[in-house]
Write a structure and sequence with these properties.
It contains 15 helices and 5 strands. It has helices at residues 4-14, 17-38, 43-59, 71-100, 112-124, 129-140, 145-152, 156-176, 185-192, 201-212, 216-286, 295-363, 373-379, 383-386, 451-456, and strands spanning 392-394, 414-418, 422-423, 429-435, 440-445. Helix 3 (43-59) packs across helix 10 (201-212) and helix 6 packs across helix 8. The longest helix is centred in the middle third of the chain and has 71 residues, at 216-286. It is elongated.
Length: 464
């Protein structure tokens, strides 16, 4: 059997996929089983861990050729990769549990293997590297002591002693953690530590890992694309703020006209009020004339007193109209400001979601996500964005992919919209639509029906 070192040297020198496939096939069960234990039996997460480990092996091939056997390095890499994924998964589940109020139940371990399984890998990494490699070769890969000695540079008896001492050290570490076993520890590990990886996993890992490091140009393109997306992210934030300012300016211009009209009405009412007040005062003086005035003058005074009552009534009505006009103006300004602010928040949320979709595609074979906007926003730690998710729904995203330039192949395709249209204070209906190129448009309707707009702006990608 060709040693690991020679296979790795051959791959590092020639990018031989066959050599790398042999390494993966040789060690995939070890890596997968170590990962499976540390992710609590989650096959999907174990697959992700294995993918990470073998991708790192492909990237670091040149620097790892000094290793006679890759078993120890792969085992340790699986430990750290699984720990990282478990931490990320725990944080995600904690956030999701807090948000969705879900509960997670775990089954209590029963037999010896179930007791030591969760702590085995952490305990293994409390051993020295030489002791850990001895146990891995003997009980994880089930090699004979002759082979173990050859890998470690020892004779058969020295290898046996090394393994036995390592097992006792491991037993001591587990005992300190309250995990004593009734059966022989070596037998428990040998029987359960390594499980067969799923069929086809080795081929998948080989293709993906080698593909990740096939050419420096591809890696550079990914880096440049990511930098461009980050630049787009900053640009979208600025554009979102500018859009909000433009919408606010347009709204303020419209409201300023309505405000001016109301002010003119108030001014006219105040002028009428002053005129009526002056006339009342004049009439008041006239009514103070002595009762001895001629009969025709008394008749005129009676008429004037009647007119005074009418003028007082008109003044009261003028005051009420002026007050009502001021209240109406304040209500319109407040409602429009709230509507504009809400719309601006949703516009920014949709632009951020569009950027998240492109970032997701950059890491997933250029394919846009098909659903679950909540998980997409959560994965990018955008807490504020989560508040707007219930009001947005995705559409046609599975039809979009990024091209070689990092741009969507169908930029004019609608990929999201508001779930429910909103009515503005002026009576018109608004609905926001997000496009694959990251832009957001506001559609308006007099009756709340947007079928005509969607039909006019529909864009169907060509059939595959």
């Amino acid at each position: 059997m060709t040693p690991d070192r020679e296979l790795l040297q051959h791959y590092a020198a020639t990018n031989s996929e066959d050599a790398f496939a042999e390494l993966v096939s040789r060690h995939v069960s070890l890596v997968y089983s170590a990962a499976l234990r540390q992710v609590n039996g989650d096959a999907h997460l174990a697959h992700d861990v294995a993918q990470t480990v073998f991708t790192d092996l492909a990237r670091k091939a040149s620097s790892l050729t000094r290793h006679e056997s890759l078993t120890g390095w792969l085992y340790t890499s699986a430990h750290f990769a699984a720990a990282k994924i478990v931490r990320s998964e725990m944080r995600r589940r904690d956030r999701e549990e807090k948000f969705m109020r879900e509960t997670i139940s775990e089954n209590a371990p029963e037999n010896d293997w179930q007791k030591i399984r969760p702590a085995l890998d952490a305990a293994m990494h409390d051993l020295k590297e030489s002791d850990r490699d001895a146990i891995l070769l003997r009980y994880f890969e089930n090699r004979q002591f002759v082979e173990v000695g050859a890998k470690l540079g020892l004779n058969e008896n020295a290898a046996r002693m090394r393994v036995e001492r390592a097992v006792e050290k491991l037993r001591g570490i587990l005992t300190k953690r309250g995990l004593a076993t009734t059966a022989a520890l070596a037998a428990v590990i040998s029987a359960n530590a390594v499980q067969s990886a799923p069929a086809g996993l080795a081929a998948t890992l080989t293709t993906t890992s080698v593909g990740a490091t096939a050419t420096g140009t591809l890696t550079l393109t990914k880096i440049i694309t990511t930098m461009k997306l980050k630049l787009i992210f900053s640009t979208l934030l600025v554009a979102g703020a500018a859009t909000a300012l433009v919408v606010q300016h347009q709204t303020q211009t419209k409201l300023a006209g309505e405000n001016e009209s109301l002010h003119q009405q108030v001014s006219q009412l105040q002028t009428d009020n002053a005129r009526l007040s002056n006339r009342v005062a004049t009439i008041g003086k006239a009514t103070s004339t002595p009762a001895s005035a001629p009969n025709d003058q008394n008749t005129e005074l009676l008429k004037l007193r009647g007119e005074v009552g009418v003028l007082h009534q008109q003044m009261d009505e003028a005051h009420q109209k002026a007050k009502a006009a001021e209240q109406e103006m304040a209500a319109v300004l407040s409602a429009q400001a709230q509507f504009t602010a809400s719309e601006s928040r949703t516009v920014n949320a949709m632009k951020l979601l569009g950027l998240d979709m492109r970032l997701y595609a950059n890491d997933h074979d250029n394919q846009f996500p098909t659903n679950n906007l909540f998980k997409l926003a959560e994965a990018n730690d955008q807490t504020n964005l989560l508040q707007n998710i219930p009001y947005i729904e995705s559409s046609n995203a599975d039809s979009v992919k990024l091209n070689q330039k990092g741009q969507p192949d169908y930029p004019n395709l609608v990929i999201m919209r508001e779930r429910i249209a909103r009515q503005s204070p002026d009576g018109t209906w608004h609905r926001l639509y997000g496009f694959a190129d990251g832009s957001v448009q506001t559609a308006t309707s007099l009756d709340g029906n947007f079928d005509a707009w969607e039909k006019a702006n529909a864009y169907s990608p060509p059939s595959q």
